[in-house]
């Protein structure tokens, strides 16, 4: 089989790594990929949002299966186009991807089908939204309706911050059309977890739980990023809570999408807030999480291609996942300044020694080769992952590898996974 992966991050490297192990796969292509992916897959110089050119390439090259990493192409209808052309593709259609692409659609769906989530109201005019603030308690969460590269959610501590957020989204139109509507949402306190599953529109097959670290700095301080690290499993999601999430969130959402005439096939990612034994939905993503995909795929034994094909052919009820019981962790190494301004093009050293640490797997995000040298090329640069018998030793292995890698101004969190150690009563160092 020939596989095409669309995207260029750590998630796509982990997908390529996992699928390249399949005995059925003869070649992996990645558009556009990065320096790490290029070591195991053939790079294709096409942008992820250039659906037409990607479909042409898939037809010309005889690609048997295309897997889409990021949300942009899914929201723009890449899957619909591939299906029209008779090409096999993994991911939700444009209509189904609205679960991530429109927060208004998502919130209205959850309310209609009584799926647990935060209270909210929708506005298409700034003045009405500002007036509504007087009826709310703070903090309040202000969300642009559409995709905004993870920047469209603002937690406002008081009225002035909420007005500033509304001005940014609806006045300055910082996120363009994504800000045509806003959601004002109740602030939920608790601990976040990611619940990611395969679904063929009927059966939901969950991966183990995971937890992202969205804040830039240790102790969950600083601005939100795409994710500075992750681990799996997340002990906050107890077996009882996992059952609850399957019963009250995952299955009802898949049934709701079918009832709305938008059958959902692909990865379904629920971002959850957990408090007092109850899980509420913060968001849905229509794709694998990044970095969560990295520690999750490191635990997936068996053949990922088989699972993806079962989703496309709607026979997921016949599949079981073979999951490594050992925990995994991923420490993201980023450019100094990320998620704000940063510089790129710095030579990365120490990778071979780091990759040789037992249990360690390194996925590339923003890297490229320049005159034969590996250099940084993005905000998130590497995902240094490790597997071990205990989470504590997986964390130790990952940081042992991280400490061997360096480039100018590189930056990472030192506390990835620590929350889980505290929770499971393991050693606490601060
Ligand atoms: P979203 O893109 O909707 O997941 O929002 C991004 C991040 O904002 C989430 O991962 C949470 O950390 C935070 N967030 C979103 N909605 C809420 C909420 N209702 N209460 C508290 N935090 C939230
Ligand atoms: N790590 C969060 C996301 O992929 O959206």
Short description:
With 430 residues, the chain is α+β, with helices and mostly antiparallel strands. It has 14 helices and 23 strands.
Cα-atom Rg, whole angstroms? 21 Å
SS class: alpha+beta
Give me the CATH architecture of the largest domain, please. 2-Layer Sandwich
Distinct ligands, ions and cofactors found in the model = adenosine monophosphate, glycine
Q: Please report the total strand number as a whole number.
A: 23
Number of domains: 4
**In percent, how much strand structure appears in the residues?**
25-35%
Helix content: 25-40%
Return the average pLDDT rounded to an integer: 96
Q: What's the CATH first level of the largest domain?
A: Alpha Beta
Unreliable sequence segments: 426-430
Major sheet summary line: 6 strands, antiparallel
- By DSSP (H or I, 4+ residues per run), the number of helices equals 14
CATH topology name of the largest domain, in short, is D-amino Acid Aminotransferase, Chain A, domain 1
> What is the CATH superfamily classification of the largest domain?
ATP-grasp fold, B domain
Terminus-to-terminus distance? 49 Å
Overall spatial form = globular
Overview of this structure, please?
By secondary structure, the protein is α+β, with helices and mostly antiparallel strands. 31% of the residues lie in helices and 26% in strands. It contains 14 helices and 23 strands. The strands form 6 sheets. Strands 12, 15, 18, 19, 22 and 23 form a 6-stranded antiparallel sheet that branches. The chain has a 5-stranded parallel sheet with strand order 3-2-1-4-5, with helices on both faces. A hairpin with a 3-residue loop joins strand 13 and strand 14 (221-224). Mean pLDDT is 96; it is low at 426-430. Bound molecules: adenosine monophosphate (AMP) and glycine. Adenosine monophosphate binds at residues 118, 141, 143, 153, 155, 185-188, 192, 214, 271, 282-283.
């Amino acid at each position: 089989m020939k596989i095409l992966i669309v995207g260029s991050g750590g998630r796509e490297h982990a997908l390529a790594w996992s699928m390249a192990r399949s005995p059925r796969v003869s070649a992996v292509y990645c558009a556009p990929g990065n320096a790490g992916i290029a070591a195991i897959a053939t790079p294709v110089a096409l942008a992820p949002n250039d659906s037409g050119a990607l479909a042409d390439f898939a037809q010309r090259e005889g690609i048997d299966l295309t897997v889409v990493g990021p949300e942009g192409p899914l929201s723009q209808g890449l899957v619909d186009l591939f299906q029209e052309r008779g090409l096999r593709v993994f991911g939700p259609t444009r209509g189904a991807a609205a679960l991530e692409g429109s927060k208004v659609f998502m919130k209205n769906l959850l309310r209609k089908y009584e799926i647990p989530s935060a209270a909210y109201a929708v506005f298409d005019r700034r003045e009405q939204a500002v007036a509504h603030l007087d009826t709310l308690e703070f903090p309040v969460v202000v969300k642009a309706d559409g995709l905004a590269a993870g920047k469209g959610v603002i937690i406002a501590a008081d009225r002035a911050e909420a007005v500033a957020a509304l001005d940014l989204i609806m006045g300055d139109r910082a996120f363009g059309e994504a800000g045509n509507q806003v959601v004002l949402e109740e602030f939920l306190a608790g601990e976040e977890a990611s619940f990611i599953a395969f679904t063929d529109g009927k059966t939901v097959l969950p991966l183990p739980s995971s937890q992202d670290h969205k804040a830039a700095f240790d102790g969950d301080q600083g601005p939100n990023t795409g994710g500075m690290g992750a681990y799996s499993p997340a002990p906050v999601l107890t077996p009882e809570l996992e059952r609850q999430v399957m019963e009250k969130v995952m299955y009802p959402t898949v049934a709701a999408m079918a009832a709305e005439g938008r059958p959902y096939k692909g990865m379904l990612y629920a971002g959850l807030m957990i408090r007092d034994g109850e899980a509420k939905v913060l968001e849905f993503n229509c794709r694998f999480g990044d970095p969560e995909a990295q520690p999750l795929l490191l635990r997936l034994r068996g053949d990922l291609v088989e699972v993806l094909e079962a989703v496309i052919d709607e026979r997921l009820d016949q599949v079981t996942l073979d999951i490594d019981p050992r925990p995994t962790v991923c420490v993201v190494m980023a450019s100094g300044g990320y998620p704000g301004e940063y510089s790129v093009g710095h030579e990365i050293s120490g990778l071979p020694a780091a990759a040789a640490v037992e249990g360690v797997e390194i996925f590339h995000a923003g890297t490229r080769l320049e005159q034969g040298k590996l250099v940084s090329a993005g905000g998130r640069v590497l995902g240094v992952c490790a597997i071990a018998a205990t989470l504590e030793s997986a964390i130790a292995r990952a940081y042992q590898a991280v400490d061997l890698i360096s480039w100018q101004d590189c930056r990472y969190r030192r506390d990835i996974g620590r929350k889980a150690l505290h929770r499971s009563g393991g050693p606490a160092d601060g």
